[in-house]
Task: structure prediction
Amino acid sequence: MFFGRRKLTFDRTAKFNYELDTNERLKTALKNLSLRRGEMSKKRYLTELLALFNKEGFDLSLRELDMLLLLRKKTDQILLEQTNRQA
Result:
């Protein structure tokens, strides 16, 4: 069942993080979606979240999106730890 499985490359991960940091349209859409989170099921929320990223040209599966978000969270944790050590 590994046919068609794409790897998350550094370039794709970097593009994802760059777009999250700089794409104002995406930021606004994500903020609006998060404000409606309480009104929808988890499945609908994830479907709409994935659709937002795919609308911006990412062509991600739910699994890839989950991995990218996890990598971003872990990177933020590492950077925060480094900042706290230097302070």
About this structure: The chain has a mean pLDDT of 90. Residues 10-86 form one domain. DSSP finds four helices and no strands in the chain. The helical segments are 10-22, 24-35, 42-55, 62-86.
